[in-house]
Every structure is written in structure tokens, then in C-alpha cells.
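DM from R.C. (forwarded with permission)

"hey, sorry to bug you on a friday — could you get me a structure for this? deadline for the figure draft is monday and I only need the backbone to look sensible"
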Amino acid sequence: MKLRTDLLTQLRPEDVMESVETHNHRYKAEPLFSTTGTGSLSSASTNERVNEVTRNTGLIRKLTKRAQSAGKKAENKL
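My reply, with the result:
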């Protein structure tokens, strides 16, 4: 899979929070989390992996559309 670093400029905080919320149920804090500040992420099931691919594809499409519309706005300013 090609890493689309060009789309990072289009990423918004709400996009990141959506991803965090979907993976939050897999996070397990260690018993001494308050002192160590660490935890672990449990393995994803097959269904979760399929959903992750679907979400990532949707996010790429959304960011691509944002980049295209931002490019049109920049052209209009010229």
C-alpha cells in the first residue's frame, strides 16, 4: 500500500478522533497505568481488520476530495 503523505495536510482533528474512538475498546491499561503510563492494544479480529480497511479507504477518498476542492480554491485565488 502506498503511503499518501500528500493527504496529511487535509487531515482534521475530528478524523483522528473518529479513528481513536473505533480502536479505544481494544486498549487495555496496565494495572499500574498511573505510574508507568503504558498499556497495550489487544489483537484485532478478522472482522475488525475488514472494517479498518473499509474505514481507511473511505478516509482516503474523503481526504482526496478535500485536496481537490482546496486545489480549486487556490486556483480561483490566482
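R.C.: lifesaver. The radius of gyration is 17 Å.
me: no worries. The chain has a mean pLDDT of 82.
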